[in-house]
TrEMBL record:
InterPro entries: RNase_HII, RNase_HII/HIII, RNase_HII/HIII_dom, RNaseH-like_sf, RNaseH_sf. Its EC number is 3.1.26.4. A divalent metal cation binds at D14, E15, D106. Endonuclease that specifically degrades the RNA of RNA-DNA hybrids. The keyword Nuclease applies. Keywords: Cytoplasm, Endonuclease, Hydrolase, Manganese, Metal-binding, Nuclease. This is Ribonuclease HII. It comes from Maribacter cobaltidurans. HAMAP family: RNase_HII_B. Manganese or magnesium. Binds 1 divalent metal ion per monomer in the absence of substrate. May bind a second metal ion after substrate binding. The lineage of its organism: Bacteria, Pseudomonadati, Bacteroidota, Flavobacteriia, Flavobacteriales. Its cofactor is Mg(2+); Mn(2+).
């Protein structure tokens, strides 16, 4: 991937799991060394599972600092998914060992974090290495979480669908109902499949 521009020691931040029916929304923040290069690194959505897993330890070991944070369904339902995504990014930045001088955010929505200047960049995860690195960490940490809670509720097959609204996941909701990990504020079933109460 090509890095178009850089701010010195910027923190890139991104989230994963925004469109899911179950599980947390997870964000990561990453500060990379000035001359960091990796030809494999790209937007996590464009990478295979194998390549994301290969990149995760490289990023964690070679970055200056990183943070990862989950915001769980109860909070998502309380404040809505957009606010929960931004809160996850703020909490990930909280975990950095050094306060970054600048924040670059994937997407077009963010709220001020302390007094630190920031820029929102649409499709930033395919333009900036620090955002791409954050996208990989957010995705791999969230996937690991979903695989863990899959053991508790294997009928939803979160190990495979990671909480996204696949037909299999919706069919399982119709058959078994919802769990503590489902987002009750989301439309969990299409109208024609509304659960009988």
């Amino acid at each position: 991937m090509r890095k178009f521009y850089t701010f010195f020691n910027e923190s890139g931040t991104d989230e994963a799991g925004r469109g899911c029916l179950a599980g947390p929304v997870t964000a990561a923040a990453v500060v990379l060394p000035k001359h960091f290069q990796n030809t494999l690194l790209n937007d996590s959505k464009l990478l295979s599972v194998k390549n994301r897993e290969r990149l995760k330890p490289i990023i964690e070991e070679q970055c200056i600092t990183y943070g990862v944070a989950h915001i769980h369904p109860l909070k998502i339902d309380e404040i809505n998914i957009l606010n929960a995504s931004i809160l996850a990014m703020h909490k990930a930045i909280d975990k950095l060992i050094e306060t970054p001088p600048y924040i670059i955010v994937d997407g077009n929505k963010f709220k001020p974090y302390k007094e630190i200047p920031y820029t929102c960049i649409v499709k930033g995860d395919s333009k900036y290495m620090s955002i791409a690195a954050a996208s990989v960490l957010a995705k791999t940490h969230r996937d690991a979480y979903m695989e863990k809670i899959h053991e508790e509720f294997p009928m939803y097959n979160w190990k495979k669908n990671k909480g996204y609204p696949t037909k299999e996941h919706r069919d399982a909701i119709k058959k078994y109902g919802i769990t503590k990990y489902h987002r009750k504020s989301f439309r969990l079933l299409p109208e024609q499949l509304t659960l009988e109460l």
